[in-house]
Design goal:
Distance between the termini: 40 Å
Number of helices: 9
Number of domains: 2
Pfam families: Gly_acyl_tr_C (PF08444), Gly_acyl_tr_N (PF06021)
Number of strands: 14
Protein name: Glycine N-acyltransferase-like protein
Bound molecules: 2-acetamido-2-deoxy-beta-D-glucopyranose
GO cellular component, one term: mitochondrion
Keywords: Acyltransferase, Signal, Transferase
EC number: 2.3.1.-
Structural class: alpha+beta
CATH architecture of the largest domain: 3-Layer(aba) Sandwich
Strand order of the largest sheet: 2-1-3-4-5-6-7-14-8-13
CATH class of the largest domain: Alpha Beta
Helix content: 25-40%
Mean pLDDT: 85
Shape: globular
């Protein structure tokens, strides 16, 4: 996705006289090719999809100043600039100055059978009011689908609560977890340990999917199985295999570049395996110039200790995973 001289912003325009309610263009994008001057003159513009490589680089740079709150949308942009396996796109309320960034799946490339995990949206805002207005008055977020909304700021969760009645959905908080960041350079001294010859490093593949599904805290459904399959087929992962070639400890990445489903089989706990697999994946991420971050239940003490040994910084930022379900599906 290298820069081309054309201006290929996808403009989503709404009728200025209908006091903010979308026109019949709902869910319908019209790619225009036009000049920068024309784009700036478009005063009724409410949101735009950034799909020019140079602009995504500018956005990335601005978002780096707002870590950890902007980490999820930042991770999505990194993936968009690579192969974009989850067909994500990023939209802003205005450009080049913006107050809201939303990473969402491209609708035309998201079949209806896609799991609600894969349909996750992530949000970062500089002004809560601007976020509320954007998602209330435009179709930036498609409330008619079941999806997970991931926000690292309290307001994302609050806005969903306030819009549920008017947009006909229910929002259920699935988990609320604390965000940690592994500082660079990684402290790998804690991950140097002598592995017995019967245990070896590898990465996850599709033969492990049932095990992943059965052990994931929010797994156990067709949707989670489909999602985990998509994750390990699209992104790097790290695991330790026992002598029989079965994974005993592992970690993978979600579509926002966030560490997820870090797990050690009960019989193998207490040996520091989880920090080995996390360190291995973290090194890979560092090479790709990705931030290394994840989220953890506050009371997960063993995992916290393992992360502390890797020099993790536990931020004061919490991730809200909110499952949004349209009322018609209930
Ligand atoms: C790195 O980890 C080792 C082992 O846990 C610890 O002794 C050391 O102080 C850490 N170094 C830094 C710079 O945090
Ligand atoms: C996924 O895990 C759940 C819970 O263990 C199980 O009921 C379900 O059958 C699994 N699905 C598949 C296809 O393995
Ligand atoms: C998947 O991993 C297993 C080890 O658990 C290995 O034996 C197998 O060859 C791998 N399959 C593929 C397709 O890489």
């Amino acid at each position: 996705m290298k820069t081309t001289p054309k201006w290929a912003l996808h403009l989503f325009c709404f009728h200025p006289t209908t006091s903010g309610s979308p026109t019949g263009l709902q869910g319908d994008s019209h790619p225009f090719h036009q000049t920068r001057q024309l784009v700036q003159a478009q005063v009724t513009l409410r949101m735009l999809v950034l799909d020019i490589w140079d602009e995504l680089q500018v956005l990335k740079k601005e978002l780096r100043c707002c870590f950890p709150e902007s980490l999820k949308v930042y991770g999505a942009i990194l993936n968009i600039c690579q192969e974009n396996p989850f067909h994500q796109e990023v939209l802003v309320d205005s450009w080049p100055s913006f107050r809201v960034v939303i990473a969402r799946p491209q609708r035309e490339k998201t079949p209806s059978e896609t799991s609600y995990f894969a349909r996750s949206c992530a949000v970062f805002y500089r002004e809560l009011g601007a976020y509320q207005q954007l998602v209330k008055d435009t179709d930036a977020i498609d409330w008619s689908q079941e999806f997970l909304l991931q926000g690292l700021q309290d307001g994302v969760h609050q806005v969903s609560r306030s819009l549920a009645a008017v947009k006909y959905f229910s929002a259920k908080l699935v988990t609320q977890t604390q965000v940690f960041v592994l500082q660079k350079p990684l402290n790998l001294s804690a991950s140097v340990s002598v592995l017995g010859s019967e245990v070896k490093f590898s990465s996850l593949n599709l033969t492990h999917i049932t095990l992943l599904n059965d052990t994931w805290s929010v797994g156990g459904s067709e949707q989670s199985l489909q999602y985990l399959t998509q994750l390990i087929s699209s992104f790097p992962s790290s695991c330790l295999l026992d002598a029989r070639g079965c994974p005993i400890s592992w970690v993978l990445l979600d579509q926002f570049g966030c560490l997820t489903h870090a797990y050690t089989m009960p019989a193998h706990r207490g040996k520091g395996y989880i920090q080995l697999v996390i360190a291995a994946l973290a090194q890979e991420l560092e090479k790709m110039d990705y931030p290394v971050y994840g989220d953890i239940l506050e009371n997960n003490t063993p995992m916290k200790k393992a992360l502390q040994r890797l020099g993790a910084h536990f931020t004061s930022c919490f991730l809200f995973y909110d499952l949004h379900t349209p009322l018609v599906l209930q």
